Amino acid sequence: SVTTLTTYFAADRIGRLANGQAAHLDANREGMTKEDRKGFKAAVKAKQRRWLFAGLLLNFGILAVVKYTNFTIANLNLLFETVGSPTHLTFLAIALPLGISFYTFKTMAYLIDVHRGKHPPEANVFRLALFVSFFPQLIQGPISRYDELSPSLYSEHRYDWRNVKFGLQRVLWGFFKKLVIADRILVAVNTIIKAPDDHRGVYVLVGMLFYALQLYADFTGGIDITIGIAEMLGIKVAENFNAPFLSKNITDYWRRWHITMGTWFKDYIFYPLSVSKAMLKLSRYSRQRLGDALGKRIPVYIATLVTWFATGIWHGSSWNFIVWGVLNGLVIIVSQEFEPLYARFHGRFHWKERAAYGAFEVVRTVLLMSSIRLFDLYRDVPLTFQMFGTMFTTFNYQKLFDWNAMALGLTVVDYGVLAGGLIVLFASRVLRDRGGDFRERLERQPVFLRYALPFLMLLAVLLLGAYGMGYDATQFIYNQF
After folding, report:
1. Which entry of 115, 199, 258, 315 is annotated as an active-site residue?
2. Any catalytic annotation for residue 315?
């Protein structure tokens, strides 16, 4: 409620100032010189910036206090201990509000867009509260923009069996991903990471690839459920994934993975920082000292690292997420630096046009992203570097052919179910690429098929889902953020 009310009030003041400026200029157009108008606009803009800054400071401040206070205290205590100081700060018992990272980003994007004049402020506080707290996407996204969600959110909705049916199918698909694939493969992932001394070398490789599949199935499954529930209500929510495991480089990967988060950081941190007065000044200075070619890239690379630092710490108040974020930024920077070399290489060998090289690029990107995600997997920075190194120093890859070594808490049936689930997952993407939305195609089939396939999917979730005796109930991974 604090976030909603403060955002509403700040946006309302920014909007009123904009309207007042337009009215004043219109009424006094003949009596004001060009300099008068310029000065008046500058004064109004300064007042709008103050309201924007107050809203951002308050709401990001709340997020910082509840999410990062104990992380800061832990690091200060470590610093005191390192320098031999007896000072020890006490941790605070702070309850983390459900979905605070997501609804804070939604509201601050709304406030910034109002300030930019992208759309007028919402006049009805209850309608704004509905946008902020729209329940399906509150705890794991997508991070919707006001101008994208509001048309369908605020429009009149009549009961539509087609929306209900399509929404239920999307929800069912999400539960299939979560329960049949993600929560089953979780058993093997936990077996590897909970005993790192016993699972080195090839186990780290298997663990990082299994975790990539688990995270994808878990996160996209949750997003499918969110989009499905909204669709049942007649509300359109933005898609958040576009086949990220088919990406050929890390930049392309982040255009396809958690799309709404990536565009948020790009639109509200990277671009504003890149064109800020400080960066433009740095760009001029860098060009004078380092030459035009390198100097103009320095501000872009700084903005990239700042953006990825923010992305990392948004994911969690711990060093493993910060290192994860910075590594993503560094890989992107290195890739951009090597682009001229890549261009000369491909110009000479023409491998880029070959399907085999495209497959190599996809595999390379998956391995690279999975390696960086080891920081998310082990949650300990020194241990992560250590375990990554064992893939190249512990030569136990023959265990891949040893069933007892690779069972990892799963049975033959479990691996069979996983294989079947992944085949279904892959087939769904192929069908989508070739014929659009599978639900639309299913709707054109005979009645028996229209209802038999969803029923079979429901049976698969009920009979093959990883829950009940022998399994621990697990929340969706992105709920923690």
Report:
1. 315
2. yes
Q: Please state the rounded mean pLDDT for residues 146-167.
A: 89
Global confidence as pTM: 0.89
Q: What is the 3-state secondary structure (H, E, C) of the chain?
A: CHHHHHHHHHHHHHHHHHHHHHHHHHHCCCCCCHHHHHHHHHHHHHHHHHHHHHHHHHHHHHHHHHHHHHHHHHHHHHHHHHCCCCCCCCCCCCCCCCCHHHHHHHHHHHHHHHHHCCCCCCCCHHHHHHHHHCHHHCCCCCCCCHHHHHHHHHCCCCCCHHHHHHHHHHHHHHHHHHHHHHHHHHHHHHHHHCCCCCCCCHHHHHHHHHHHHHHHHHHHHHHHHHHHHHHHCCCCCCCCCCCHHHCCCHHHHHHHCCHHHHHHHHHHHHHHHHCCHHHHHHHHHHHHHHCHHHHCCHHHHHHHHHHHHHHHHHHCCCHHHHHHHHHHHHHHHHHHHCHHHHHHHHHHHCCCCCHHHHHHHHHHHHHHHHHHCHHHHHCCHHHHHHHHHHHHHCCCHHHHHCHHHHCCCCCHHHHHHHHHHHHHHHHHHHHHHHHCCHHHHHHCCCHHHHHHHHHHHHHHHHHHCCCCCCCCCCCCHHHHC
Tell me the average pLDDT across 341-370: 86
